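Example record used in the benchmark description.
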Amino acid sequence: MKYDLDAVGFSTLSIYPTKHGFSFAYFENPEILSDWGNVSARGAAVPAKIAGLMDRFSPEVVVTNQCDGENARTSERARSTIRSVIEISERRVVQINHLNRKDILSVFSIFAATRKIDVARVIAIWFPELANILPPPSKVWMDESRQMGIFDAVALAIAHYRLGN
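Model output (structure tokens):
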């Protein structure tokens, strides 16, 4: 698949807030997932961790989830993380893109992916290096696996590239 790299940026760092801090995925381009992980951080430590990732990767674009809007159900901790991403990106003059769940599902809908686990399964096929961390489907009474945040971060980056934002 061809991408208009002028429209979407080449290197992309996606950051997805989680209960324990945030997950990230770094793409050199739409087809090369270079690094990913979970970062445990809360409060004042979050901006420093985000800045460290931006120093390490020097992305052209930073993508995060949208935390406002009529259907947004975002915790204050997640909103704080997203605000940190925005502030650091603006200081470094890095393009920022916000995507919501609807954007992500629109990209993955051609694969009949209607749930987070479905999206994660598609991602694990595209990027076999993530297959060994694919969590099993969680039950309604269970906490979501920490690894799911990585798949959420990857999904943000893929949606960014596919939608050409």
